[in-house]
Amino acid sequence: MIFRSAETPHAVRRVPTRHEIPESDRWDLTHLYPDDNAWEKELADLQQRYPQIAGFRGKLAESASSLLAALEFEKSIDQPLERLGTYASLRVSENASDPAFLEREARLQNLHTKIVEKCSFISPELMAIPDDRFAALAAAPELAPWRTVLERLRRFKPHTLNENEERLLAMSSQPLSGHEETFSQLTNVDLKFGLIVDSTGQEVELSQSSFSSFLVKPDHDLRRRAFHQFYEEFSDHKFTLASTLASSVRTDVFQAKARNYPSARAAALFRNNIPLAVYDNLVATVRANLAPLYRYYELRRRALGIDEIHHYDTYVPLVPKITTHLTFDEAIDRTIAAVAPLGAEYTRELETGLRGRWCDRYESKGKRSGAFSSGCYGSPPYILMNYKPDVFADMFTLAHEAGHSMHTWYAQRNQTFQDHHYPIFLAEVASTFNEELLTHHLLDQTTDPQMKAYLLNRQIDDLRGTIYRQTMFAEFETIIHERQESGEALTLDTMTKIYHELLVAYFGPDFALDPQLDLECLRIPHFYSSFYVYQYATGMSAAVALSRQVLESGDASRYLGFLKSGGKQYPIDTLKTAGVDMTSPQPVASALQLFAQRVDELAVLLDIDLDSKSRAA
């Protein structure tokens, strides 16, 4: 969305305010609460009710009925708390500089801390029940809807502390997470990247969101200037950013040690019963398949006609004669057509939501950058976008977030509140699955060699960004946590040196690494949710396998069963039921074989002989 100022000799594109975005292009949060007063009313009601949970203290082991009553009352707290939290976080995402939104979220965080503290007796009391008595309670017919929850909770017995210790950890959760809020405020609100003159001589505002738009421009000098101007602002705040990231790592390590886990990584993977071998297989398999990635960078260098390739040259499309300008509604059209193999119900519900007001479509002042899907039990699965018609990847982002949202839609309609939450490990399968279907659909619809090359390039970059790049991030997370666990100091110099070594390994010997790129490790939001990013890579690998199943068989029933299962099973078991074994390196290796195949196909279409030793552009 473009806004112009008449007071300057050249039209200036600026980021609009929230109120300048048409209502039809904003999400409709009235499905959560009709207005802020309704939110305040539910908050007040919850503040009055939650202390009653103390009445169940000491009674959990008395009988199955007493345990059921406690669990159901806790659910009556959790459901409105989730709804309150969803509304508050979505409003902050609209504008992180609005003090009223921030104040509302802060009050809810305070209440959440109090509720967790008040409920902190539940886990220790359940863990204290003798094994035979616990097994008998869990087997009671009236507790059948809670059996999965109880069995999973029992797994945490070695990592559950006594009541006073659990209370202290609950009280410390908010102050220990301050680094994440600092990072968000600094990067989304305080950092100012200024204006940049584009190829037409027009001044354009550079922002966290618009940065990606500059990186796909065909003008090499514009990409270079945008890259350096963007990182100059990060360089000015690098010590603060390094401090917040180091604090996040220290918190992860502290919490893991406090709960008797061997490492922060083991703690992160324990909840969903993910074997460490899954993580290690991913890194090892990707490391063993870096040659096709180097080959692709050489293809890209030659196709762009440049003497050396830099990071800001890795996103621009390699077929410059094809320009893309897709409206949001056109992106919906293509997404719906792509997911048609999933059946009438899937396409109908998704189209209704996207053409309705599930989605907050465009960038605005103070709005959170990037994209996400978020909802709570019984609400629409909302989508935040910062959609730009000239960024082809944004259509894939829409399909990606739509995959998350439909996963939520199916899980909510087929599971109870306590079983519908699916873990991130599965979420990234559903989202990247949709991207695979979109790629297949678009390739199938074109006979134009240039358009086919464009789409192959898009798929290659998607696999590169999701498997190779996220695995590099996963390695970085592992290393910095291990350094902290071994007692080494995490400083700006330490972290950027670690990151530089990974850049060298993953980009190869013929890639020109700008020193500013070492600072990239300080601007990745997901590093504040430790050991999260590896799931993008495993998710895409599983998605490639599942999408091939659906497209080759014409039967989407196993995949829809996967969506409906929510969090009823552990993710590795859920994927095995759907037909993919992630404890094996094979799904990752197969996805990287597809990457290598697509690179060779693209080289043929672009008439570039990659086996030639010449570096002539």
- CATH homolog superfamily of the domain at 32-176: Oligopeptidase f, N-terminal domain
Largest sheet: 3 strands, mixed
**CATH domain class of the domain at 32-176:** Mainly Alpha
CATH architecture tag of the domain at 32-176: Up-down Bundle
Mean pLDDT: 92
Give me the CATH fold name of the domain at 32-176: Butyryl-CoA Dehydrogenase, subunit A, domain 3
* Strand runs, count: 6
Describe, in plain words, how this protein is organized in 3D.
This protein is mainly alpha-helical and 617 residues long. It has a domain at 32-176: Oligopeptidase f, N-terminal domain (Butyryl-CoA Dehydrogenase, subunit A, domain 3), CATH 1.20.140. Helix content is 60%, strand content 3%. The chain is built from 25 helices and 6 strands. Strand 2 (195-197) and strand 3 form a beta hairpin. Helix 2 runs antiparallel to helix 3, helix 20 (449-485) packs antiparallel against helix 21 (492-507) and helix 22 (534-553) packs across helix 25.
